[in-house]
């Protein structure tokens, strides 16, 4: 999703992928058609705009692939993670697909064999050896080109479980408890992010903890705001357009408290999350949400006994709280009277001071080494799931490190976290994930082995029968 210059949400990726998909499919058809014509030694009759389209699509796809590989490199890691979950099902489905594919493959191979036999008969009767030998060679090459890859792929599918690993293939008694939920900026699919309504919705949905982002105003009031400016989630463009590009922390609290922080969410004709349900009449108060203080979030957490974790933004250089913001936030937390063990302290600065003033805070690190976590006496980590699953998940679990991963919104990804014994996840989609009572795509090793052997035998019998019947 991109917040365009027009200040509206637009799912550009859906449109872009649809257009590129249509163009790529059409261009692929033209390329295949051209290849077949060249194979049969026929002249190409592609119109000039078809040739231009093929060139444009190739250049466009190459450019987009470069962008994806350069700027969205971490996104590709998600593909590998998805294969960990879906690998057993892709394997079993692929064997079934090969059985269906064996019918046209068998028909084509046997058709080539019949034509080769006919050519061989013509070769002995008409004695045009050179010409017919070339034709026979061409037919044999076609048989090898079609038949050999089919056979190799089929054999690989028969043995691929020996080289695959899926966390969701395990014994039922080894499955870890369901991970807890931290509401990412509250429940941002049910209320405007980082507002009182959003956090109350997260509590209603049974969140184990609340996650937020804290900045410091010019008059030293900690408030909740994720973005470095106020344009996306407030009405500052209407109230003070000339200052809309200013960093959020360069405003006084008296002004920040007057801004509307919910209208963008309630009145947007396209919602900030794909598949988000429209607001009910009872949720009309979303339009009147304001930017909350950190103390207001702490009050909600204190009453509901929910844990709190937050990113604390370092004020800019010229900000009056630049050197004292850690102490300021600790003071606000202590004044709120919230139980100290409910605070999960993420900021890495001045940990010794924080421990001395608030010994009950639970300190949490990022993707640090085990040695560093041990040295700093940290037993919890908060990490991006893409980085964790590729960087020492087993080592952290072996060291009894409590793990929270973000940002987990899809049921399959939550299932992967559950099967991997992750302790908690930060999510936007708590209302959906809380309904999952058992990880998706879970199966026991014995059941997977039974299905694997059964499908291998059944597919082999079907494929042999198909070839025999056509022969």
UniProtKB/TrEMBL annotation:
Membrane topology of the entry: Multi-pass membrane protein
Gene Ontology terms: biological process: lipid metabolic process
Pfam short name (any one): GDPD
Gene Ontology molecular-function annotations: glycerophosphodiester phosphodiesterase activity
Any Gene Ontology CC annotation: membrane
Keyword Hydrolase (UniProt): yes
Keywords: Glycoprotein, Hydrolase, Membrane, Transmembrane, Transmembrane helix
Residue ranges of the TM segments: 12-36, 48-69, 89-110, 139-160, 447-470
Protein's cellular compartments: Membrane
GP-PDE domain: residues covered: 179-437
Name under which the protein is recorded: Glycerophosphodiester phosphodiesterase domain-containing protein 4
Source species of the chain: Bos mutus (wild yak)
